[in-house]
Amino acid sequence: MFQPKPEKGTSAFHGEIGHGNMLDGAGFSPTEEEEEEETSSTNAAPAVIVEKPRDEVAILIEGKVRDTPSFWPDCCIYKVPQRFRRGNEEFYEPRVVSIGPYHFHQGSFPQMQIFKLKYLEAFLSRNELSLDQCLGRVRTWEAKARRFYVDLIDLSSDEFAELMLVDAIFVLELMIRHQFFEYVDNCDRIYRKPRMIEDVFHDVLLIENQIPFFVLEGLYDLVDNSSKGTLKFFVELTHEFFKASVKINEFGADRAPVPGVNHGVKHFVDFIRCYYLPTEDEKHEYGHRFYEIPPSVTALEDAGVKFATTSTRSLLDIQFNRGCLKIPNFRVDDWTETVFRNLIALEQCHDDHQVKYISELMFLMGCMIKTSKDVDLLIEHEIISSMLGSNVDVSTLFNHIGQGVGLGQPYYYFSLCKKLNAYCKTPWHRWKPILQCDYFNTPWKVVSTIAAIVLLVLTLVQTICSILSL
To answer: Could you tell me which residues belong to the region Disordered (predicted)?
Structure first.
């Protein structure tokens, strides 16, 4: 049946309710006031939405987020964490020369800045290179070089290019003059001053004082072949420069630099670490769950452990078999603490180092060397060669160098420590050296001990016979 169209101001919904639904026996219909209000709202202009003002703090945070530098996987040159630096600044901060941007300050080491420019002039002149040519090459590396530094480098493009060029050529000239002393003139204020070259060499070893290896390698490619001698590749020059001071000259052929091969070396500290790493044949059984603290050298000797040194390829290759602990000869000198502290700092900061070999080696040595007596025993067996003032200094070095070090997983020396602890806990291994020391250390004691044993046996036999005859 046809239903009438709703009147103006009402809806079909209202009509249905008014005509078809009953509430308490009465029909519902809108009042006049409601009709007027609905009509006026229908004819009104659309409402204007007013945006709420932005929070100034939110705007400030957004600006900071935009200014935050990007993180890159290339990062490998770090500032040393405070837990290592505190009280040990001398091992992480440059003495006489800043290399790279971390310790670059206006007026910093002013005398050395002059020496850098003198080395730059000599380098360019000898190799017939133009400043524009070298600077142009460095500029092409700027983006990649910046990514090597973990901290933001607050230098303009021109300032960064100048810094890279001057510092990189200074390092190259330093290395070339070390290898070819004929390039050292009488006015050289570094090589003609023994104390100065030692301080400069110290500064080159610091993790905070590094230039990306590829920058040095690229500039070395510009050097005239007549100035390189037999060292055609930069990796060879680097090996010659460091081998005597950080003892990387006695490693096998598997660790020798291969000319023309990209070794993936990041900087000098990383280069030195690569030489200390074990080969596949030298790697131990890893432990993934927990660590075992090894006994001290004195405790090992009391348990009858024998000590021997080896000419193994890797400083990390410590082995224990049949009661004999073989440890490669470890030379301790003025460079030792600086070198190993910076190697540890690199391992502790760099994510690529799943197995922290150097950190674990220093942790192991620190556990085994507690007192100067432990050092005495290792020196006696030619395992440690010390050039420090006293054996107390050596024990102090090993006790302090591994403090605050995180070992991570897996633990490289897990199997070794497990064997040492098990050996020391075996009663016979503890009694054997006591017997040897107290009863068998001289021929007369051997004879008297044997006589006493024979007498004891005869007495025992006589006693048994007497009992049986009763």
So the answer is: 1-47
